[in-house]
Fold:
Amino acid sequence: MNDILAKILDTKKIEISTARQMRSEADLLREAKSRKDVRGFARAIEEKIAQGKPGIIAEIKKASPSRGVIRKHFVPSEIAASYAAYGATCLSVLTDIQFFQGSYDHLRQARAACSLPVLRKDFIIDPYQIIHARALGADCVLLIVAALSPHQLREFEEIAIELGMDVLVEIHDRAELDVALELHTPLLGINNRNLRSFETSLQNTLDLLPAVPPHKRVITESGILKADDVALMRQHKVDAFLIGEAFMRAKEPGVALRDLFAAE
Ligand SMILES: O=P(O)(O)OC[C@@H](O)[C@@H](O)c1c[nH]c2ccccc12
Structure:
């Protein structure tokens, strides 16, 4: 696996073993369980869609391996407040340090600045990170099928649910879809960006749609940049979106969100 995802996952292993030395899993678990402040992530999306509006997960990310630095003026609390003011449904906050210039503090600050449910956006390969997510305040975790075995996916979903969080399972192709369908979560993210090559095509969501059973909530992820992209997805009954770059490049991210969905 000589690709970007493989590099990220190798780095994660080191990050996690260092984190474990700083703080034990048992200690983290105590903190995670003592928090009684979970915000319903999946529920927020369903409520929006029930009102006939799109569910919008607005992402807070400073940089990415494919784009470099996306946003120089980066204040997570300001961005979160702006998203909330202009109608975002949920937040997604990158906590990966090495490749996305994220941080745990970004998540804490963003969540404290609004009342929206928050997804910890990271590459989860160890239960420690799920427990850490809740200790930080996350309401949902991302599980990437390309990064995990079917056994790990089931085990990790269990741990997240046990802590009261929702799970967004991310797929990229048909084989991954079949694995994801074994999980309980209704939230199915179809990434238009291949995490191995970083190429993006919205056609990826459209191609996989017919194979998705009706009880799953499809969230189209990555590469949604213009109103036409939103319209194309809505025509195909895709009502939930995960969008980062298009908002992060704008002066006022919330305004960009409102404008992108002005026709909806
Ligand atoms: O910035 P974009 O193209 O709107 O994409 C957002 C989000 O989908 C993307 O950041 C993403 C999707 N899956 C991921 C997994 C890890 C890191 C990042 C991601």
User: Anything to note?
Assistant: The domain at 4-260 is CATH 3.20.20.70 (TIM Barrel). Residues 59, 61, 121, 170, 191, 221-224, 242-246 surround indole-3-glycerol phosphate (CB under 6 Å). DSSP finds twelve helices and ten strands in the chain.
